[in-house]
Structure formats: C-alpha cells, structure tokens
Amino acid sequence: MATVAAVIASTHHPFYYRASTSAGPDRPPFADEWVAKIEAFRQTLTRAEPDVLVMVGSDHFHQLWLDNMPQFLIGKAPFFDANWYNEEREFGLPRMRLAGDEDLAAYLLREGLDAGFDLAFSNELRIDHSVTCPIITLRPQADLPIVPVYTNIFAPPMPQPKRFVQLGRALRQMVEAWPVDKRVAIIGTGHLSLELGGPRQFGEHGPDPEFDRKAVSWIANGDIDACLAEVTLDSLHTPGNATHGFMDFMLMMGAAGDGVKADYVDSLDLFHTMEAYFTWYPA
Amino acid sequence: MSKYLVDKFLYTVDRDPELVERYREDPAGTVAWWQQHLAGTLLNCHQAEQTTWLSFTPQEHRALVEHDHVRLFELGAHPFLTLTLFIAMFERDHGPLEYQLAYARAMDHLHLPYPDIAT
Q: pTM (2 decimals)?
C-alpha cells in the first residue's frame, strides 16, 4: 500500500518567485525573511522523501472557463505544461513542464467517482500558479510526478465548504488504499483573507487579520468543526472578495484529519495577504 | 445584463498579448472589433458554430469603452479578470504598486455586500 508521507497546506503567493530571485534595488526588503521561511518549509517536504505529489489547487480562469466549468477536476496526463502568458507578464513566472503520474490519477478518478464525487478530468491540462508556486517553494527541482486536483474556488456557484473537507478526507483515504508501494505527499494551496480587484486590495496586511488569526488556528489545530461552524459560502465574502480560496485549506484540513495538529506551522505577515505554511506527518 | 459576455471580453483580451495592447490604445475600436469577431465565438469550436444571442447592455459597453474598472465592478464583472487585465494595461505607467493602490482608492465608496459576480 502507498504511504501518505506528508500532508502540506500553504498559501500560493505568485510574487515569491520574483521576490526570491531579484537582486539589488529590485529586491524587496522582506525577501530575505521570506526566503528563509520558505527554505525551512521546504525541508518539511524533503524530509518526507516523497515519490509522487498530489497537488490541490485551482485554475485562475486559464484553461477552465465559464462555458464549461467543473467543480472538481483531476488531471490525468503524462506531462503538464505550466504557467501562462499572463502569469509571466504579471508575476515573472517561468514556463515549466512537470511529469504526471497517470496510474495514480486514473486510480483517484475511479475510486473518487465510486465514492460519490463526480470528478471531471482533463487529459491535456496546462497548470497555473496555484500548482507551480508550491513546486517552486517546496520542490524547485520539479523532479517528481504530480497529480493535479483542481477545485472551483473562483466562479460561483461553488461547492459548499463541507464538500471540500469531504474531498480532502476521501483523497487521504484513497491514497492510503492505493495498492502501490510509493510515498505520496498531498499538497494543497489556497488563501487566507484576500481581496482582488476591490477597495481592500494591496493593503499593508491581508484585508482581515482577525480572520487570518482564526484561520491559522483552525488549520494548525485541525479544528474542522469550529471552522465549518463559522465558514459558509456567504461568510467568506466578508474577509475579502477572493477569500473563497480558503476552501482549499479546508480540503487540506480534511486530508490531515479531524483534530490532528500540524507538525509544522509558520506564517509571514506580508502586504496584501498573509502567508501560512503547515505540514503534517501521518503516523 | 450580460455579466458572462463582459467576463468573456476580459478573459479573451487578457490572454492575448496583441489584444491587450489594442485595448489599451484603442478601447472603442477594440470593443467594436471584438463584438463583431469574438463575442459569438464559442471557444474551442469551429468558427461556423457561432453563438447567436450574446450582446452587451449599453452600460456594459460604455464601461468597457471608457476603461472604467469601477463601473465594471459595480456591474458584477469578475474582479480578478478586470484587475489582471487593467494591471497589464496600466501598471507600466506608474511606480511600484502605485497603480494597484489607486485602483483600490477609486473604489473606496464601495462597501459589502459587493455586487454579485455569479454568471
């Protein structure tokens, strides 16, 4: 059987690549601290010695569009080209190509469908920064095959928060039952409070530091009940108009397990949004 | 209202470097051209398969022609699409973060609940 070597949840900040690779006057004052935190976070994945990465993220209107919008989608392909022209333009992200694990993707699709998740699939998926940012931060050599799992946190109507938690639990159970002797890390990225294109964007902190404090506590303590009691599709508008990305953190809480405290917790208060990093090592 | 068509405009322009420049330099001409050539194009389908019923309201048309990101927000355009495209067009004319902050300040009169972006 496969081993879940690590469960990792993180923000995906598209400006990290540029901040960490810039020098001289272009290098932002917070870059050194940010790089140090990311390098420490990276060690938590390296220590887990994974063979394959399940990568939970969300397409930002790149390949998935309103004429044909899946709620949950798994990429099943031998390779995934990555990053898009507008991500190169705005964030300076590089073009990438990642290998895919088609066997695990096919297995998750079959088992997920049979478990009651009507998963969509794609055999030609160009992935975006929700997946490549954690590759850049956690596995910059980009040498491991991935299985992308896309969620809709972007285009209403979206699934309920509890559905994200349920899918996270199911992903964990399915990976643990995969009859292949490999070490799998389940990595997912989302947002804490975030505003994009509204009056609260690009402030000195995230738009709702109080929500961020609560969210970090929920995640760090695996407090799914408290989180689900407070977070609804409607309530997520209040901390910032792009905060529905927090539901990908809720998915990862489901994967980590009810009441399971994270083994590694770190955060960084940046302009615009707070960064947060969590790792669990299942026994 | 055709929030979907406004979003389709923002989406198809933002992903095409040439259209980004055309929309920056000639918004009225680009919107007119787009209505004629792309509004009815069903993405990933042969040109013969045209959507026949999509059109902008006068308010939507005016907001696009006037590069009015505040009005687009008020009309329920997806704010990520608007922001990404407008940064691509206008950040270059400003210092670091200057444009993004001015973009936000122009919306200071807006409060929760924000306009519905569901399509």
A: 0.97
